[in-house]
Amino acid sequence: MYEGAVQNLIDELGRLPGVGPKSAQRIAFHLLAAETADVKRLVHALVEVKERVRFCAVCGNVAEESECRICRDPRRDTAVICVVEESKDVVAIERTREFRGRYHVLGGAISPIEGIGPDDLRIKDLMTRLSDGQITELILATDPNLEGEATATYLARLVKPLGMKVTRLASGLPVGGDLEYADEVTLGRAFEGRRSLEF
Ligand SMILES: [Zn+2]
Q: What's this model's pTM, rounded to 2 decimal places?
């Protein structure tokens, strides 16, 4: 245990995902030794992200205006929606340059163990988006793990009455993993080889 402010910083850093006690201590002492101007820049970035960034009113992706960059882009195909769990998945798919439609960010996946049900995700918003009949294909790009598969199955059954084409990314993605960890080529191929889901 350190005194006051240093321990305080270590405790706060230790609450971040992936930062264990040792890393928290290392970062704290790095900041302690850093130039004041550098630390102020970091503080500014932290405050700014909370003040400026919000979630897109259409798709739920991170945005700096009421709609995100992708939803505002008139060149994007409005007839195809790709459903993902998190904004980081949007970034991963954008990197492949395979997809020119728009997204829908659920904010997670169905997980009974963690107590996350359909009502905790942006599924109602998705259904509203689909209700105007303009969407021809819904791509389910949830993670290739248990929760992601369960969520894709749930959604496929839910939207079946709407009669649109529902596809799932092709196998070849690392099973049990996160979409964001797949390399661009693998993810791009999975996109190209997506298959229709029938229920
Ligand atoms: Zn958006």
A: 0.79
